[in-house]
Write a structure and sequence with these properties.
The chain is an alpha+beta fold. It has four helices and twelve strands; from the N terminus they run E-E-E-E-H-E-E-E-E-H-E-E-E-E-H-H. The protein folds into two domains: 86 residues, no CATH class; 96 residues. It is 34% helix and 31% strand.
Amino acid sequence: MEQDGTWVLVIMLAPWRHPDGHVEQQELRVEQKVGSNSRLGQAMRRLDERDAVRVTTAGVTPPRPNFRWWDCELATRIAKIAIPPDLEAAQHARDRPVVVRDPQLGRLVLDRRLGAFVGKRGGPGKRYELAIDEGMSGTPEAQVQSARARVLAVERGYAQILDAVVVEKLPLYNENWRGNRRRLTASGFRRRCGMN
């Protein structure tokens, strides 16, 4: 909603045709004033996620620093159209999964809704989901590689934190917290505290 109380429809388009004619895969943020809340609801129900639209606007601008999307001037019209063949081909290309096979982090797949490369990590006694934010530029492999050292450092740090928890809390568990359960060894307590 605008400060004057006018409701605004916001849609993100990708792929889309740039005014110079090329097909752009980076998202375009489109805003159109619709008036009231009920008119916003009508506008939202009129458009499905896979619809092709023609946007009438005064111009588009490239992504600002630290943003992933293009912007456009306030749209004066958004109309459904049949999807042109080149945009359909670009959509099929966009729908193909982006997979990175990192030698240390394993298989990561780009989740466009999250804007992150996601995968599973783990070993004996621990398993977790990993999400690495999609970078602003560079190949998918380079983006994952730039985060690799930080991920591995966190994993090393996690092991040290878990060791400290075992040293500090195992006696407390065995003397006060275990109730009728059997006493735990350091390795058993570590497994119980670790990521699964």
